[in-house]
Amino acid sequence: MSQQFHRPAIVAATLALALLGGCAGMGGSRPGAVAELAATGAISPNPTTGAVSFTALDHGVRVAGEVRGLAPGSEHGFHIHEKGSCASNGDASGGHFNPAGAVHGKFAAPGSHAGELPSLVADAAGVARFSVDVHSISLNDAAANNVVGRAIVVHRDPDDYTTQPSGNSGPRIACAVIARN
Ligand SMILES: [Cu+2]
Ligand SMILES: [Zn+2]
C-alpha cells in the first residue's frame, strides 16, 4: 500500500484522541445538574428529603435519585415545573414544564407535558428510588426544553394523569431548583 492509503487512518485516530481529550477536560463526564429536594411547609410534619441527578444523554436526560421520608407504599405525583422557585410551599414553581403547549398526561405519553416524570412509589421504608431516561428535556442552555434553573416537585398525592392541568396530585411536599453541577 502507498502512503496515500495510510494517511486518512492516522488523521481519524488523531481526531478520536482529540475528542477524548475534550471530554477529559470537562471532568471526564457528560454535562450534568443536580437538585437537592427540601420539604415544604405544605404539610406538617414533613420529613421529605431527596437528591436528584440529571445527566445529559445523546437525546434527552437521565434523571436518577431517591426521595426519602415518604409514607411506606405511598404514590406521589412527580414533575418538573416551569419556574425556578420553591417559594410559597412550592407553588411559586408554577405549572408543569410545557414548552410545546401539550396537555397533562402520563410520563412519555405522546402529547403530554415535557415535565412529566414517572410517579414516585415509596418502599416499605418510605424511600422511592428511580432512574429514568427522559427524552422530552435537555440540559442545553440553547434548547427550548432546557430544565436547568427550573424546579422539580414531589406532590402529596398520586397523579391521576387525567385532570388538567396537573393531575390532581395535591400540595407540593418537596421542591428543589435544578442547578448545574
Ligand atoms: Cu408537579
Ligand atoms: Zn403535566
Word description of this protein:
With 181 residues, the chain is α+β, with helices and mostly antiparallel strands. It is 13% helix and 30% strand. The protein folds into 2 domains: 1-28; 32-180, Superoxide dismutase, copper/zinc binding domain (Immunoglobulin-like). It has one helix at 3-25; strands at residues 32-39, 49-57, 60-68, 75-76, 78-81, 120-121, 128-134, 151-155, 172-177, 179-180. The strands form 2 sheets. Strands 1, 2, 3, 5, 7, 8, 9 and 10 form an 8-stranded antiparallel beta sheet that branches. A hairpin with a 2-residue loop joins strand 2 and strand 3 (60-68). The longest helix has 23 residues, at 3-25. It is globular, with a radius of gyration of 20 Å. The chain starts with a helix and ends with a strand. The model is unreliable at 1-27 (pLDDT under 50). The protein binds copper (II) ion and zinc ion (ZN). Copper (II) ion binds next to strand 5 and strand 8. Zinc ion binds at residues 79, 96, 104, 113, 115-116, 166.
Summarize the topology.
Elements lengths: L2 H23 L6 E8 L9 E9 L2 E9 L6 E2 L1 E4 L38 E2 L6 E7 L16 E5 L16 E6 L1 E2 L1
Antiparallel strand pairs: 1-2, 1-9, 1-10, 2-3, 3-7, 4-6, 5-8, 8-9
Bound molecules: copper (II) ion (CU) and zinc ion (ZN).
Structural class: alpha+beta
- Principal-axes geometry comes out as globular
Structurally, the number of domains stands at 2
Task: Give the ordered list of helices and strands.
Answer: HEEEEEEEEEE
CATH homology superfamily name of the largest domain: Superoxide dismutase, copper/zinc binding domain
Compute the average pLDDT: 89
Specify the biggest β-sheet. Answer: 8 strands, antiparallel
- Low-confidence blocks of residues: 1-27
**Count of DSSP E strands?**
10
